[in-house]
Amino acid sequence: MINKVVYQRPQLYDRQLECFFNDKRYSFIEGSTKSGKTVSCMAWLVERAIIHGFEGSNHWWVAPVYQQAKIAYRRIKRGMPKEYYKANERELTLTIIATGAVIWFKSAEKPDNLYGEDVHDVVVDEASRCRAESWHAIRSTLTKTRGNVRAIGNVKGRGNWFYKMCVKAKTGNDPNY
């Protein structure tokens, strides 16, 4: 068992640090394809699980479909030393050995499957492609824990929940966004 973890954040450029590693509870980040959104969120979620995680704390990566969640799962596994985590391929989880925190990789396809758990940190990947019902379910899991969100996506019209949340965040009127 590892009692101490040496964590070094990957090198990110200033804009990534500003958007992802800030003191806001909710960050909604629009960006073009291959602009570093995913790698920034992977670093953010792993860091949260290692530094702020504890036995049984839940940290979610939610993607529009299961296959996209598996991409993040495989990338995070490749990026962490094997002795730092225990993988469960069936559940698609990574348990951080030093803290007991669990990183779950989930699909937003069936919003009802997202209710019920207490979650401490969430990444919503490709958020502009997830239904609003999934966002409401995810948001409900953060109520008790006052958990944090990093939602990322491309601009995909102006009628979806993600675009509306990005507009809300840009106004600067809410100190949580």
Outline the structure in words.
This protein is an alpha/beta fold. 33% of the residues lie in helices and 20% in strands. The protein has a seven-stranded mixed β-sheet, with helices on both faces. Strand 3 and strand 4 (93-96) form a beta hairpin. The longest helix has 16 residues, at 37-52.
Top keywords for this entry?
177 residues, alpha/beta, seven-stranded mixed beta sheet, 5 helices
Shape: globular
Proportion of residues in extended strands? 15-25%
Distance between the termini: 38 Å
Biggest sheet record: 7 strands, mixed
Q: Order of helices and strands, N to C?
A: HEHEHEEEEHEH
Whole-angstrom Rg: 15 Å
* SSE-based structural type: alpha/beta
Low-pLDDT windows of residues: none
Number of helices: 5
Average the pLDDT over all residues and give the rounded result: 93
Q: Give, in spatial order, the strands making up the sheet with the most strands.
A: 1-7-6-2-5-4-3
Percent in helix: 25-40%
Number of strands: 7
Topology:
Blueprint: H1 14-20, E1 26-30, H2 37-52, E2 58-63, H3 66-79, E3 85-88, E4 93-96, E5 102-107, E6 121-124, H4 132-141, E7 148-153, H5 161-171
Parallel strand pairs: 1-7, 2-5, 2-6, 6-7
Antiparallel strand pairs: 3-4, 4-5
Give a quick rundown of the structure:
This protein has 177 residues and is an alpha/beta fold. It is 33% helix and 20% strand.
